[in-house]
Amino acid sequence: LKSEIDKDIKEDYQYTQDQIEVAKQAYKEFMKLEEKQLIDDERVFREIKLMYAEYFTGGMGAEAIKEMLVKLDCHAETEKLRKILKKARGQKKTRAIKRLKVVAAFDNTDNRPQDIVMEAIPVIPPDLRPMVQLDGGRFATSDLNDLYRRVINRNNRLKKLLDLGAPEVIVNNEKRMLQESVDALFDNGRRGRPVTGPGNRALKSLSDMLKGKQGRFRQNLLGRRVDYSGRSVIVVNPKSLRLTHLNRYLLSL
Description:
This protein is 54% helix and 2% strand. The chain is an all-alpha fold.
């Protein structure tokens, strides 16, 4: 009994020390807090938000990114970057050029930066993700249906947690799981371990359906029966063609 009590006291002491350390780090981060600053430690961020929420505004995930994009003035940012380019050198200039390409593209079009954050996922037609009935009443279904189901289930679970007023830690964890299911739908295996199906086989995502010779574009949309075919290499012809011109040359049959 004494050993169990000593163990509990030791665990409580360690927990208290950890909380004190987190509180110290939170205070230190809060004192040097700047606009658009990133805090990579989630525990520290939660402590700052708990203790000093009335003095600053902060957020996590896609909602925070979208809120910042709404406030972004692309025209003013473009002018600011052009002024930086006149004086910048080396790595700073390279970084400014990369940023200017993106910001200027938004400034010259009607596109809004906040629209790149998706709030709804389009569902492809059933013909592209078929379900076939087999002998014995079983069904063979496309991998995309399983990936879509994961997204729907986690989204419904997140909605239920929000309606119940679940703690922020649980809600954030469910949002993270929803993001992982969306990542798997678009490109399975891109972020860490892929989602697998029966036989421990990685499920084919939307990108797998599109890319490669067996993909939707090259196999179904561009592939046509022809009378003759040939192989060629596209090369430049500086004598008669300009950079924006295209010319069909002879093919060997």
